[in-house]
Amino acid sequence: MKKQNDLALRMVQGYLPKEILLFSLPLMLSNLLQVLFNMADIAVVGRYSGPLALGAVGSTATAVTLFTGVLIGVGGGINVLVARYCGAGEMQKMRRTVHSSFLISLSIGMLFLLFGIFGSRPLLELLNTKDELIEGASLYMRLYFLGMPALALYNFDSAVYGAVGDTKKPMYYMLLAGAVNVTLNIFFVTVLEMGVAGVALASVIAQYLSAILVIAALMKSRETFSVSLREVRFYGNIGLDIIKLGIPSGMQNGIFYLANLFIQAAVNTFDTVMVAGNSAAVNSDGLVFDLMTAIYTACGSFMGQNFGAGKYDRVKRSYLVSLAYSVGVGAFVGGGLVLLGPQFLSLFTDDPEVVRAGMYRLTIMGLGYWISAFMDCAIAASRGLGKSVVPTVIVFLGSCVFRIIWIETVFAHYGTVPSLYLLYIFSWTITAIMENVYFVYVYKRAVRTAGGLLNA
Question: Which of 15, 119, 372, 449 gives 20 to 30 Å between its CA and that of 1?
Fold first, then answer.
């Protein structure tokens, strides 16, 4: 109990640059491990099962991240509410939030599982997935989605631990599960020759292992935020607060990936080499964005804790420190990927034509990742103040509607790879401007109302 109290206390009293960094590093490592293990999936299938298998798995990447992104967004909403009640010392509300969140997260995971079983092939057909890839892609998605309930529960647990300042415990469990994932990848693909089915099953087994470990830890814990199956239920207004904050947060992430489905459909109009190159290069997104997401999680957690404790100047500084860190990570890692692009892409394929095709995407994205920090950090900051609806609308306009218009106009006119990927830079810039204007308004209103709960 004392350890958890000390962690929470440092969030509202400690030196913010140091505490945010210490909070973020384990979470960054945990996210990095997830990315590296997912990269191992693609690397193993690409090198041992060939370009068609690589293209099949890669063709599902945008669709899969659409749903996993929703789960991460819901976890972000849970994180903010638990952090706020912890900072305010409202332990009964915090406990009810934890148990309502458990039920809501599991329910969403089960719904996604059903969609994966019955909706994978229709979605891939809608995305114009090539005939030679669709069988393998459909099989991979149906199997991968069996792990969605486990992924939902892991994100729930990670959000709860992060809200009270403990980001190390989920990291340890992810490290163990990831090692199992890589081992099973190699065994299923190289020994049993299962191809895309092998990497999908390895991922599912690892997801359930990580979920079981973190759930068991929460159930054994004696802290206020521990989980008791007898208390798992939907607690009226608390449950509604989770839905009002968590679902829009999930939708924000989902909207990004929904727009990316249209981009994937545009990619699929190119030849198989370009599709495979995109499948290899898209791994850089997970690497960079998941590192930056750890900082956004810190932003929401620290703002939630300090907002609940009534420390409004620390709320603003939490945002500014988080923004500086996330811009730095995006610029440093993105620039490194551009410089070492061929070496990075060679992890997934030994075909020089595929590597050359992948560099188109990697160069544009690598030089622009840092811009997205101004958008995503402002979204996390607004969420930390209890606002999710308006940021979701802004994301829909700037990162969905705008991207679709770009594809139907600019890309339709030029039809080149650069004309497709430049839409990311422009959409991030437009959305960032709108999100920051809104955050400034929300912050000033919060200060004027002396920290009263805001009703979006």
Answer: 15
For 168-179, what is the mean pLDDT? 81
Q: Which residues of 366-381 are buried (b: 16+ CB within 10 A; e: fewer)?
A: bebbbbbbbbbbbbbb
Name, in order, each residue with C-beta under 8 angstroms of 22's C-beta and a sequence gap of 6 or more: none
| Residue in the structure block whose two tokens are 């945008």 | 62
| All residues at 6 or more sequence positions from 314 whose CB lies less than 8 Å from its CB, including other chains | 12, 16, 302, 306
Helices (H), 50-145: 51-59, 61-88, 91-126, 131-144
Residues 436 and 276: their CA atoms lie apart, in Å, by 36
The number of folded domains in the chain is 1
Cα 200 vs. chain centroid, distance in angstroms? 19
Rounded distance, CA 222 to CA 216, Å? 12
User: Residue 454 falls within a domain, yes or no?
Assistant: no
How much is the pTM? 0.70
Gap between the Cα atoms of 442 and 254, Å rounded: 23
Non-local CB neighbours of 30 within 8 Å, separated by 6+ positions: 158, 167, 170, 171, 174, 175, 294
pLDDT higher than 80, residue 30: no
> Could you write out the DSSP letters of every residue in 333-395?
HHHHHHHTHHHHHTTT---HHHHHHHHHHHHHHHHHHHHHHHHHHHHHHHHHTT--HHHHHHH
Q: What does the block give as tokens for 445?
A: 């209103």
CA angle 8–13–15, rounded 5-degree value: 110
Is the per-residue pLDDT at 434 higher than 80?
A: yes
> What is the token pair recorded at 400?
């969905």
Q: Provide the residue range defining the domain that includes 318.
A: 13-448
Domain-located, residue 6: no
Task: Report the interhelical angle of 283-308 vs 16-49 (nearest 10°).
Answer: 150
Residue 201 lies in a domain: yes
Inter-residue contact 5 to 223 (CB < 8 Å): no
Q: What angle do CA 28, 33, 34 make, to 5 degrees?
A: 100
Residue 249 burial class via C-beta count within 10 angstroms: exposed 0-12, middle 13-18, buried 19 and up: buried
Which residues have C-beta within 8 Å of that of residue 350, sequence separation ≥ 6?
47
Beta strands in 277-341 (DSSP E): none
Alpha-carbon distance of 376 to 288, in angstroms, equals 13
User: For residue range 70-117, what is the model confidence (pLDDT) as tens digits?
Assistant: 787 777 778 777 877 877 778 888 888 888 888 888 999 999 999 888
Q: Tell me, yes or no, whether 64 lies in a domain.
A: yes
Q: Hunting for tokens 């792990």 — which residue is that?
A: 147
CA distance 275 to 267: 6
